[in-house]
Amino acid sequence: MKKALCILFSICLLGLRANAQTTPATAEQQRLMLEQITAVSDKMNSLVCDFEQTKELSILNEKIVSKGKMYYLKDNKLRWEYQSPYKYTFLLNGDKIVLETEAGRNVIDVNSNRMFGEIANIMMSGVNGSGLKDDKTFKKSFFWDSKLPSILLEPVKKDMKQMFSSVRLTFNASDWSVETVEMKETNGDTTIIRLTGKKVNEKLDNKLFAVD
Asked: What is the DSSP letter of 25?
């Protein structure tokens, strides 16, 4: 369950890149960041990209690297497909979530599962940019760099605080495109997801998001 929730939370923060920048943004820079994110999301009907996920385990001094492909289709359709070293697929279509492994397939109704429902809402708000305006879910700190402005998110809700201590998001200021998200878990582990080969507004087959 926790593994699935970590994957869901990762997806909700797509569009972002880890960075050590610590110069606080001015009010005007913060306004500009939110304005640019919203403008880009309004024009994005679909997104396809490759991803590489690196998980750093604090107790083992070890890194685990996974690779796969992500598909997003407006509205409320998302496919997160791990391809190596193991196969694992997360699918969101409206109010249905599918978790699929080589061992089987599980369909979840987000309306009947409070935790999955809440994270599904966060995922979509993160993808379309509106989540960055939500003060009920995260405490946000904005940092400015002419090339890589960033946002530090700290969970406010109890369920999220039990899983993550903070999330560092960084945007490519040249086009505000999806790049990377870095998450620090409460147990000391760190997960970094890097997105490459991004293709925006290509036509996607609806079969990619089929729930039944």
From this structure: P
